[in-house]
Amino acid sequence: MATIIDGKALSEKIRAEVAEEIARSALKPHLAVVLVGDDPASHTYVGMKEKACRAAGVLSSVHKLNLDVTQAELMALIADLNHDEFVHGILVQLPLPRHLDQMAVFGAIRPEKDVDGFHPQNVGLLNLGLPGALVPCTPAGVMEMLKSISYTLKGKHVVVVGRSNVVGKPMSTLALLAGATVTITHRYTENLAVYTRQADVLIVAVGKRDLITADMVKPGAVVIDVGTNKVGNKLVGDVDFAGLQEVASHLTPVPGGVGPMTIALLIKNTLQAAKMQHG
Ligand code: NAD
């Protein structure tokens, strides 16, 4: 029976550590969240982030823009936040409406305030293995989960399913930097199971319910389920959780797995950003 990695408990521990560091320091980290439109899921996520900030002693402000905001208006807000010395982190809640150029927005955020780690400078630093990068929260959270079970990636085969800029690619980079042999698979991969069956650590970030079934996993593998899928009003991941419990050594649940870790690492990144800006 697989051991369940409790992302909720681990995220609370990380958030408490951040809160303690903030309480001990003279820093007043401030996260500015930009929210475009009225997507209910985005509003829920932003609400959760505000709550987590409050609990950790991080100030937060939410800048709500109408769905029909222009690129120029959004860029002007980013410029204001870049110049505001009391704002240490800027997060633009995704997804953005189609008429807005997401990459241009990421590129406009000052790299030291880019708590999502999407600015090309942070992506570059991470890929070069150089210090000072703000690392994308979800893959950084997955690394914390592996650390919590004292898992050493060096020499292990990590298979990542999904190659997005937000999860799959930075996840692969972090595993590679930790000394793993990494295979990246994606929507055009033929015979996905051939690769997933080789994984010592299988990290799935796609957004397709039951994509990974027990027969696709090597016995004893660690399986991290990043995916989220709405089924009615329930949230499920990308893996057949019940089936994999019989095969995997460790497994993350959805909900209560990677999701809370993403928020904990956002809070941690905001503190890191504040520290970088205050030297
Ligand atoms: P995305 O849509 O940008 O990328 C999905 C990736 O899956 C693509 O690279 C695509 O090539 C790949 N893919 C699609 N179909 C596939 C298939 N049949 N076989 C193999 N690969 C396939 O999504 P994303 O932003 O990377 O997010 C992925 C999932 O993770 C989503 O469900 C998202 O909701 C979830 N997510 C969760 C958190 C969290 O904190 N829990 C954070 C970010 C994303």
Give a verbal description of the structure:
There is one protein chain. The protein has 279 residues and is an alpha/beta fold. The chain has two domains: 26-110, Leucine Dehydrogenase, chain A, domain 1 (Rossmann fold, 3-Layer(aba) Sandwich), CATH 3.40.50; 137-259, 3-Layer(aba) Sandwich (Rossmann fold). Helix content is 41%, strand content 16%. It contains ten helices and eleven strands. The strands form three sheets. The protein has a six-stranded parallel β-sheet with strand order 1-11-8-7-5-6. A three-stranded parallel β-sheet has the order 3-2-4, with helices on both faces. Helix 1 (7-24) runs parallel beside helix 10 (258-277), helix 6 (137-148) crosses helix 7 and helix 6 packs across helix 10. It starts with a strand and ends with a helix. The model has no long low-confidence stretch (mean pLDDT 98). The structure holds nicotinamide-adenine-dinucleotide (NAD). Residues 138, 161-164, 166-168, 185-187, 189, 192, 205-208, 211, 226-228, 258-259, 262 line the site of nicotinamide-adenine-dinucleotide (NAD).
